[in-house]
Amino acid sequence: MTGRIEARLKDLGIELPVPPAPVASYVAAVKSGSTVFLSGQIPVTTEGLKYVGIVGQDLSVEDGRAAARLCAINLIAQIKAACDGDLDRVKRCVKLGVFVNAIPGFGQHPEVANGASDLMVEVFGDAGKHTRAAVGAGSLPRNVAVEVEAVFEVA
C-alpha cells in the first residue's frame, strides 16, 4: 500500500528521482540516532543540471525559487533512500541550509529559499516546518543557482 507521504507527492504531481550517487569524497546521508544529515543537493534532473548561473544576473528570483524547489525534491529522494524507501518514517524536517549563488548586494535570499521551504510544508505538513539558513554564496558547484542541505528526524 502507498504511504501517506507518497500519496501526497502523487497529489502534488511530484515524481521523485532515483537519488544520484555522490561524485566526490562524501556520502549522501549520515544517520546518527534518529537524526539524518543530508548532503547538499543541487538542481539536477535526469536530463542534467538546471538553473545554472547567478541569481540577479543570469537568473531571476523566480528561477532561483524554482531551483530551490528542485533541490528540495532531490532532498526528499535522498531522505527516502535513507529511510529504506518509507517516507512515512520522516518525523520532521528539522533544518534547511539554502545557499544562493547571487550577485554581490543581493538581498532576496529568503524569497529564493522559500522554494525549498514551501515544498517541505506542502509534502510533510506541520512536520515539514523547519529552521533555516538562507545565505548568499560567491559561487556554487558547477555554477548552479542554489544548493540545499537538510537535517531530518526519522523514526
Number of helical regions? 3
Beta-strand content bin? 25-35%
Number of strands: 7
CATH superfamily: RutC-like
Low-pLDDT regions: none
Instruction: Please tell me the total number of domains.
Output: 1
Domain Endoribonuclease L-PSP/chorismate mutase-like: 6-145
Protein name: Enamine deaminase RidA (YjgF/YER057c/UK114 family)
Pfam family, one: YjgF_endoribonc
Walk me through the structure.
It is built from 3 helices and 7 strands. It is α+β, with helices and mostly antiparallel strands. It has a single domain (29-154), classed as 2-Layer Sandwich (60s Ribosomal Protein L30, Chain: A). The chain has a 5-stranded mixed beta sheet with strand order 1-2-7-5-6. A two-stranded antiparallel ribbon has the order 3-4. A hairpin with a 2-residue loop joins strand 1 and strand 2. The longest helix is centred in the middle third of the chain and has 22 residues, at 61-82. The radius of gyration is 15 Å and the shape is globular. Residues 6-145 form the Endoribonuclease L-PSP/chorismate mutase-like domain. It holds the Pfam family YjgF_endoribonc. It comes from Rhizomicrobium palustre. This is Enamine deaminase RidA (YjgF/YER057c/UK114 family).
